[in-house]
Design the sequence.
């Protein structure tokens, strides 16, 4: 078996099949990166899996999952002004959390260099929006590179690190979901490790590092001047690509994954356009672009999400009065969704219908029933939602937060009627409670999110006396993104650490009303919640059950593990269907006669469903019901 | 070799990731240029998991254009129908493991479960070759993917990949008893 950790530390040059998220770790190793930090979020968690594949003592850099993206950014910055090449990575919306720190970075002289790796998510595959983080590069005067595939991820990280080190400025490497997760054979360079100089090099005279009063304005001037120097580099870099099809009439300017989609869609097209693929999306290589504009009569700007490059290119052409027709976005749909090959065909056929034919329809009709994601068999959140629904009136308001428990918004639970972002539920619930005495307000929160961004909202509810109930859905891990540890799980990425128990935190903050229950005790949970919502003060119910997906995966590592499952006594079952329609475990299967059976591939035998059956027809794993097996 | 596009699908937890990586690496061992991409994130929680593989020269994006898959590999019947209906070429090939993980609307009695005949009807209408795989006696449900892989090779459904390429790919990705058991199953099904 090929070991990823060995591969990432090879001394010789080699090639291997890797994901974009793995290629970047080899680039970090070769570049001499010394400090890496993150908060887990799709599409980037596999970067940490690749890092984890290198045994801790062999890892040439320090890595941690910090409590949130802002903290991770501050940690990487601190290390970088001490002389260490550092990197922070997180998902698209993670930059919103980190923004307060991030927007200051370009003002600073970051002597060690710092690369900010973003996992943007066009198409909102696993995010609450598909925000275009190139806007942040503009507002913060920060250079940004955008690779299209795993090989480019490797080369562009190396470029970003070199630029950051030589200029002492932050550089953004913007990945997108299907660049992170694409796999192909990538050729890597040799790695000649040099003993790092870990002498703390922080010196205020390298600054200023205090962006206040008149200094802030001067620092902005310096920052903008540095960005102009990068523009020259963006002109000259060998990472720009020109595809010369000898077409003086038509050209396309594009970047990132849409370039690959374009190349696919042009296969077989008549009179292919010339293509300029940009490596730097900020600052733009003005001379290179003007040269391309000047040598074509029509230029299409093929740009995923927003029209940032298009507007700058139009401004260049306007200022120079270039006689070129620039075609940007024309329909609102052009701003929306990932630029897959299908999408690019659609966009291109609208621009030049004689070049590529429009597909008959963008998407064929789906002949199968929709399959929304759902909570896993045995999930403690399912038991919680089943119980909570019984304790609340239909008019009560439930506020969701980010995590696996967000899926409670789907049928059959419909628990969690509003969602914003990490940690937002408590304060939104507090606002919903103002002038509202007739409808109870309940907020949900996961335990990783509790530490990430929930504390200010919780403290506000205590401080300003908002009488809502917070239900802390504690499963002991950061489940949705692949079971990363958090401050209450007793381990960090590198070692065993002291737990920070959520209950003691809440008590320390002065919360007067705290109840705690394992969610499998559904009746008890419903009873406690009924008590708590009746109190006219801020209250918390800690609804606890370990993540059963994590638990089951750990059990399966034991060679003697046998998957167990509950059974249904068909003679007792009255087809009331609470198990399948209200409790809703995916294990329950319905036949055409309305009989319910167990999908033994799925059931883990946890038995959380047994209490939901009004006729007691479900028998625990290992015990036969009165009427035999299902 | 002309581009050969494979669309793999199933439900989170069925082992799409492993079979996809085996095929990706087998194609590479066979000396072909190859790219793939997986979907992650929410899909892991009981939703649809998709992986795409593109083999051959002049392939740029790892994403298979709609209606351009030459082969659909599904580990579940509903997902077999969905992928055959939305991404598979006319006269393409569909192979699926004939198990059912009912989607929510079926369990809520809002829609009917997809029947084997639904899959066959769709395939017949569009000239799609369809192979359904099912074994009563698998030692572990997580080996359904290897049972399907064996059928894929038995029917030579992916051009340019030989037995030794699949075997090398498995050895790249697995070790110890996991490799042994999966190889045993794979080899047994080849001669079954």
Sequence:
């Amino acid at each position: 078996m090929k070991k990823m950790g060995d591969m990432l530390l090879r001394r010789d040059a080699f090639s291997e099949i890797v994901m974009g998220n793995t290629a970047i770790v080899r680039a970090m190793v070769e570049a001499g990166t010394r400090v890496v930090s993150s908060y887990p979020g799709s599409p980037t968690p596999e970067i940490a899996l690749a890092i984890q594949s290198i045994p801790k003592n062999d890892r040439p850099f320090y890595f941690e999952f910090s409590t949130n993206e802002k903290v991770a950014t501050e940690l990487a910055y601190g290390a970088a002004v001490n002389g260490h090449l550092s990197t922070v990575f997180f998902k698209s919306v993670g930059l919103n959390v980190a923004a307060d720190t991030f927007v200051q970075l370009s003002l600073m002289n970051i002597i060690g260099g710092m690369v900010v790796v973003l996992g943007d998510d066009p198409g909102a595959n696993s995010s609450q929006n598909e925000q275009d983080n190139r806007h942040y590069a503009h507002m913060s005067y920060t250079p940004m590179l955008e690779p299209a595939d795993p090989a480019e991820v490797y080369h562009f990280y190396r470029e970003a690190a070199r630029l950051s080190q030589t200029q002492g400025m932050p550089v953004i490497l913007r990945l997108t979901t299907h660049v992170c997760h694409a796999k192909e054979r990538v050729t890597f360079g040799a790695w000649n490790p040099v003993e790092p100089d870990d002498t703390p090099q922080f010196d205020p005279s390298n600054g200023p590092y205090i962006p206040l009063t008149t200094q802030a304005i001067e620092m902005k001037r310096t920052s903008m001047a540095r960005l102009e120097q990068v523009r020259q580099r963006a002109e000259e870099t060998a990472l720009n690509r020109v595809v010369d099809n000898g077409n003086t009439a038509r050209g396309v300017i594009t970047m990132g994954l849409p370039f690959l989609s374009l190349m696919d869609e042009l296969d077989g097209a008549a009179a292919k356009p010339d293509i300029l693929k940009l490596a730097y999306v900020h600052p733009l290589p003005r001379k290179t672009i003007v040269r391309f504009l000047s040598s074509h009569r029509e230029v299409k700007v093929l740009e995923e999400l927003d029209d940032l490059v298009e507007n700058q290119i139009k401004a260049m052409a306007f200022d120079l009065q270039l006689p070129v027709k620039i075609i940007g976005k024309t329909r609102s749909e052009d701003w929306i969704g990932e630029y897959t090959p299908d999408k690019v065909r659609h966009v291109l056929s609208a621009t030049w219908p004689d070049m590529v034919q429009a597909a008959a329809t963008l998407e064929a009709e789906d002949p199968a029933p929709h399959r929304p994601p759902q909570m896993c068999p045995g999930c403690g959140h399912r038991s919680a939602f089943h119980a909570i629904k019984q304790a609340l009136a239909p008019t009560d308001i439930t506020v969701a937060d980010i995590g696996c428990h967000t899926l409670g918004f789907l049928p059959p639970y419909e628990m969690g009627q509003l969602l914003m972002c990490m940690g937002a539920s408590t304060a939104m619930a507090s606002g919903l409670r103002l002038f509202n005495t007739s409808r109870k307000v309940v907020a949900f929160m996961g335990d990783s999110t509790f530490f990430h961004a929930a504390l200010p909202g919780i403290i506000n509810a205590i401080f300003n006396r908002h009488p809502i109930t917070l239900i802390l859905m504690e499963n002991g891990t950061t489940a949705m993104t692949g079971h990363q540890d958090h401050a209450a799980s007793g381990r960090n990425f590198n070692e065993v650490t002291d737990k920070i128990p959520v209950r003691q935190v809440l008590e320390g903050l002065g919360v007067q009303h705290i109840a705690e229950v394992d969610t499998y005790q559904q009746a008890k949970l419903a009873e406690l919640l009924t008590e708590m919502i009746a109190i006219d003060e801020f209250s918390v119910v800690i609804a606890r059950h370990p993540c059963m997906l994590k638990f089951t995966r750990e059990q399966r590592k034991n060679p003697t593990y046998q998957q167990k499952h509950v059974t249904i006594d068909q003679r007792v079952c009255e087809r009331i269907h609470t198990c399948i329609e209200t409790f809703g475990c995916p294990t329950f299967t319905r036949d055409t006669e309305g009989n319910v059976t167990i999908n033994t591939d799925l059931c883990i035998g946890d038995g959380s469903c047994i209490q939901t059956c009004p006729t007691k027809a479900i028998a625990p794993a290992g015990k036969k019901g009165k009427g035999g097996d299902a | 070799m002309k581009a050969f596009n494979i669309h793999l699908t199933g439900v989170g937890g069925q082992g799409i990731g492993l079979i996809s990586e085996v095929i990706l690496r087998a194609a590479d061992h066979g000396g072909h240029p190859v790219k793939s991409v997986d979907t992650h994130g929410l899909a892991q929680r009981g939703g649809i998991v998709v992986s795409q593989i593109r083999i051959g020269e002049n392939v740029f994006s790892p994403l298979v254009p709609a209606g351009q898959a030459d082969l659909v590999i599904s580990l579940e019947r509903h997902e077999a129908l969905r992928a055959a209906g939305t991404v598979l070429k006319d006269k393409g090939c569909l192979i699926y493991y004939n198990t059912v993980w009912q989607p929510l609307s079926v369990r809520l009695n809002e829609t009917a479960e997809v029947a084997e005949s639904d899959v066959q009807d769709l395939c017949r209408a569009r000239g799609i070759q369809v192979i359904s795989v099912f074994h009563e006696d698998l030692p572990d449900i997580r080996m359904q993917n290897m049972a399907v892989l064996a059928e894929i090779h038995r029917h030579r459904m992916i051009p340019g990949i030989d037995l030794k390429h699949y075997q090398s790919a498995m050895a790249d990705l697995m070790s110890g008893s996991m490799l042994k058991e999966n190889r045993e199953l794979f080899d047994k099904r080849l001669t079954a």
Summary: Chain B touches chain A through 66 residues (CB under 8 Å). Residues 176-191 of chain B form the longest helix (16 residues). Chain B has one domain: 4-190. The mean pLDDT of chain B is 93.
